Amino acid sequence: MNASDRQLELGKRIAELRHAERLSVRRFALIVGTGYSHVIKIEKGRVDVRYSLLCRIADGLGVRVGELTGDHRAEGER
Question: Where is the HTH cro/C1-type domain (predicted)?
Answer without folding.
Answer: 14-68
